[in-house]
């Protein structure tokens, strides 16, 4: 009996152990063939065939996709938006937006030529007319959008982004050469984007 117990102990010691670096170090790939069809068991992956195929399609899109050149968003943001759009995720964001017709834009520069510019913006809605003090970034945004008196604009209060919607119907000329005309029925609103 003693020799039988010694033989069993000997067998336990001879079992080879699998060396792993991490919890998922046995996974070598997605387990897909060349046509992006999942194999039953391959490269350490088992099951989830549809998810593996979807991951393979995304990987193939990234490898074969053209370069994205944009000043407004990064490559990662463009890819994230495309993936969200493809799987149907909609993100709603609540932001406070000011809309109105520009009555007057006054930009004051420092007397010495250098220094910060300050300005005032007068917006008119059907209910009221309000004055806003502007800093240098807001003035740069107005100049970039080429905003002038009679334009209907929106201002995002959180980011300071200005969008020009068109010309006011009251300031419209007889011909339609400057873009679309809008009635001044605007006010400060909360819009879900």
Q: Might you state the CATH topology name of the largest domain? A: OB fold (Dihydrolipoamide Acetyltransferase, E2P)
Number of extended strands: 9
Structural class by SSE content? alpha+beta
The H-and-E topology, N to C, reads as: HEEHHEEEHEEEE
Largest sheet: 7 strands, mixed
Q: What is the general shape?
A: elongated
Domain TIP49 P-loop: 65-178
Keywords: ATP-binding, Chromatin regulator, DNA damage, DNA repair, Helicase, Hydrolase, Nucleotide-binding, Nucleus, Transcription, Transcription regulation
Pfam families: TIP49 (PF06068)
Organism: Manduca sexta (Tobacco hawkmoth)
Sum up the structure in keywords.
193 residues, alpha+beta, two-stranded antiparallel sheet, 26% helix, 2 domains, seven-stranded mixed β-sheet
Report on this model:
The chain is of the alpha+beta class and 193 residues long. It folds into 2 domains: 26-91, no CATH class; 94-192, RuvBL1 DNA/RNA binding domain (OB fold (Dihydrolipoamide Acetyltransferase, E2P), Beta Barrel), CATH 2.40.50.360. 26% of the residues lie in helices and 26% in strands. The chain has helices at residues 2-13, 49-64, 75-87, 136-145, and strands at 41-42, 45-46, 94-108, 118-124, 129-134, 151-156, 162-168, 181-182, 189-192. Strands 3, 4, 5, 6, 7, 8 and 9 form a 7-stranded mixed β-sheet that branches. Strands 1-2 form a two-stranded antiparallel sheet. Strand 4 (118-124) and strand 5 (129-134) form a beta hairpin. The chain is elongated, with a radius of gyration of 32 Å.
Short description:
The chain is an alpha+beta fold and 193 residues long. The chain is built from four helices and nine strands, in the order αββααβββαββββ. 26% of the residues lie in helices and 26% in strands.
